[in-house]
């Protein structure tokens, strides 16, 4: 029996756990989109533009654990999405970008078909532009070889946890391939040297056993490579003082007594640094030493007293062992450490910071707001904070277990979070239906500056069943973090004013008046957080506009800005 | 005396006629933006996102004739804009994309600064991604060499009429260079072989003189290379039957008796093709044989009876002459032809098509609408038609002299026209104040599908003084041209519904109720076109929503779709 190559592609995408396909239709992908509807369980989610599609696929992938997938058309579509894919590349996110290309005869003859450049256009030139934002690509041309190529790059996407491209000329999507190719599943086993992993486990176990004041530090790469559960288990087995980076936030259950706090070099809640500095050995999982993830490079570990478990290798007090894989190694280590006696410190719980002061002042302030916000969160919530003031507000506080804090700590593209919240909602809904786990909320935190870049994706949210994020917009009249860095009063840090009360009705929200609130005082903020609609009891998007002063910022961003290189 | 390199850059940009600088601020360009305010006459126009900035710069360049310029920040910003720059590259538009990069010490040390990718990031990697969408780039690093590099790429931008990049590490913008470098203006003389041009003129003159039924065909490249006035003059001197391509539309004064019509191979108003086919020689200016510019490749000229004046060469009945430049050559030819007797045909005027039928039916239809629309236009108007149904409606009709019809005929990126209309308005205002020519209107024609991609740029329009385009939105419930191509009822061709009455108030329009109209019938359309606000008597954005049926399309797009390759 034969099936079309288009169908084959979507069957493979479904096989690895993806259900929602993002994208924008275009004349070189329309027939490819038809085949999505032939595959049971797959769902087409059209986006408002291609950058938004890329962001949505990224948000979906982070929450679902399966690859995010989106489809664009030749040239115009694929280039529009590039910044989004680059973000997935920077932050180890599994994304498959499927590009519907011009027909092969058009390519061979260098025809001046629209969406190309030049008088004898190379139709593959856009593919070259994307070379630097992906780890692999299937450049389909030969129908016989195409299925294996598709399998190969899906595998690379998952094993490397990075974006890949699939370029498919339109006239290939209806070509036929043997259906029984699907009988063999894509092999997703990471290449691991068993012997190396055993040696690594022994060495780590020995080093930890010899330590008097060992500590565990969990960074974000851990989650991206599927090692989240393993890391939680390990932490729970060894029960030594445990920290996270900004990116590693919410991997570890912060209600456990061994949890200390987020450690960011010189930028921490008071008390955290002191506990870290008393450690004679630190076990670091999935280290990622970028500027905003290290308190502006003020976090560093002494090689002689550090054990790094990286993606594909291990570094024990400066000695490197290769051939390991972060997920399987942490799993093995957790098993090996079970029942092992370790020297354990007891640490006093670190109090929230800053304290809930100024309760008598009515004006809403960021530091007060984020402290109050902490108690609003619930297990299984996804907190999506667009880069700006929000991440530095939300990261400072304790979050419930099984939450997922997402901020683009490295790539830092403003506008990312709105479409990513769409992806997150689709993923949360799928996870709830597939696994029965509680349906968490997507809590989107963005600023007026960031929202402007991608706001149209709220239309998609409103139109799609089961998508109902809570959108908090920090309205502080422009680009606040930029004002902090340079140009506090400069006109380039202003943005055109918005009347957000019109945003939900513009996109046809069924209860646009009821779903929108504007908050100016602490009391109003407190009250809004208690509304049933914000507790998850709603069927559609909820929006809260937070009126804040221009230069009011979370303490953490002020510290980070002060310490940044070149400042 | 010394000035900063940042100041130097903006002085040079101003020197070549640019006044409005588009872009989005980011932490690696803020100090560079400060210097804009030091240069008299320059104006910062912040955009809502980077793709929109690129589109706005493109629209500005097309209308102003001077380079469009926009500024982005490292990584996230430059990549977001890439599709816009590629469009400028495809369509020969002068755009300067200035990228504020990370500091040189960060680059040298491969620091993990945000907006980069990888653990030892190459900060220049985004520059490589943009290699294929530009003709040149200044990669600034050495302060002493930087001014000459800036001069060089501005020159290349203008002479090649294509986009260039200027990459400037943030710590270079405050470095100092000699102010007197500015005393020597950038040399913008195109390299021309005088002898070759004289020969070419003689040969063309001879060939035209020998012809019995010569014709002139004007294509879009002519305008992009500054040869618009020259082409008009030539047409007026030789007075032979004159045609344009889709892209060449509005270069020639269509009220002249020698004007025949737009010639698009098999896709024309009845009568046009017949006149063209009677020609024994065709003088083609700035030929651009892309699919949508040739009636889906049904327009072609016989080499033996064609004279091509291309950008840098001439082809006379198959014989090639190099070393010419389209602008100077057309100028020379116009001078040489003055007073020359040519065999001239008299052609009957081609009537409008389709006729203004169905006047008794109240439902608004595209074919009726575009015929009525033709008489709404005035000299010096810019008509910006986003790719979709609009260009194929507006192009079929006669337009007044000195109008400028802009549609992305080759690159075809939907969403382009909204930000481009911002650029157009800024340029029209500048041209009016600088030259005293009448202030035309920017008439933006877009669809609900296209508008969704970039709608936030309307906020910028509303906030900026002197920006007041007329926005017509064809609301036909999704992607109409795609429905025509494939998937008439497919869900991927639907978009989330909009209530456009909320769009202007969302962006704080001072008279949002008065400036918005919804049109459902022919009578309403007719009435709206006569409103004083739409005649130019307004201070801010005016918006008209046109309710049209899903599958109602201009006859021309139906023909083009039927004839397209692979259909």
From TrEMBL, chains A, B:
InterPro entries: DHS-like_NAD/FAD-binding_dom, PDC/IPDC-like, THDP-binding, Thiamin_PyroP_enz_cen_dom, Thiamin_PyroP_enz_TPP-bd_dom, TPP_enzyme_TPP-bd, TPP_PDC_IPDC, TPP_PYR_PDC_IPDC-like
Enzyme class per UniProt: lyase
Domain of life: Eukaryota
Cofactor(s) it depends on: thiamine diphosphate; Mg(2+)
Domain Thiamine pyrophosphate enzyme central: 202-319
Listed GO biological process terms: aromatic amino acid family catabolic process to alcohol via Ehrlich pathway
Cofactor: record remark: Binds 1 Mg(2+) per subunit.
Chain sites annotated for binding Mg(2+): 448, 476, 478
Catalysed transformations (reactions): a 2-oxocarboxylate + H(+) = an aldehyde + CO2
CDD domains: TPP_PDC_IPDC, TPP_PYR_PDC_IPDC_like
Domain Thiamine pyrophosphate enzyme TPP-binding: 387-529
EC number of the protein: 4.1.1.1
Keyword Cell inner membrane: no
GO molecular function terms listed in the Swiss-Prot or TrEMBL record: magnesium ion binding; pyruvate decarboxylase activity; thiamine pyrophosphate binding
N-terminal signal peptide: none
Thiamine pyrophosphate enzyme N-terminal TPP-binding domain location: 4-111
UniProt keyword annotations, A-Z: Decarboxylase, Lyase, Magnesium, Metal-binding, Thiamine pyrophosphate
GO cellular component: cytosol; nucleus
Family assignment from sequence similarity: Belongs to the TPP enzyme family.
Name of the protein this chain belongs to: Pyruvate decarboxylase
Organism from which the protein derives: Lineolata rhizophorae
Taxon lineage: Eukaryota, Fungi, Dikarya, Ascomycota, Pezizomycotina
